[in-house]
Design a protein that fits this description.
single chain; about 90 residues; mainly alpha; about 65% helix; about 0% strand; globular
C-alpha cells in the first residue's frame, strides 16, 4: 500500500493514541469496507488507501471538534480511547 509519509505519520499517531498497531487498524478499516460493500455495493470500488486517508481525516476532525467544542473549553483525549475507530 502506498501512502504519503504524512499519512503514515498520521496512522502512527492514531495507533499510539488508540493503543493498537498500524496493521490492526488497517485490518479494522478493511473489514469495515468489506462489510459496507456487502450491504450496499458502491458505484465504484473503495480502495483501502482511500479509506485510510478518509479515516485519518475524520479521526482528527472529530478529535479537534471534541477537544475544542463551541464553548472553547478544551477537553482531554480520553473520549477517543473507547471509541470504535471506524465509526463516523
Amino acid at each position: 500500500m502506498r501512502l504519503e509519509q504524512g499519512m503514515w505519520d498520521a496512522l502512527t499517531e492514531i495507533c499510539a493514541r488508540e493503543g493498537m498497531s498500524v496493521h490492526s487498524l488497517c485490518t479494522v478499516i478493511k473489514n469495515k469496507i468489506d462489510a459496507d460493500q456487502a450491504e450496499t455495493p458502491p458505484s465504484g470500488e473503495i480502495t483501502l488507501t482511500s479509506a485510510i486517508r478518509a479515516f485519518a481525516l475524520r479521526y482528527f476532525r472529530e478529535a479537534e471538534a471534541i477537544a475544542i467544542p463551541e464553548n472553547g473549553i478544551r477537553q482531554g483525549k480520553d473520549h477517543l480511547e473507547s471509541s470504535d475507530p471506524c465509526t463516523g
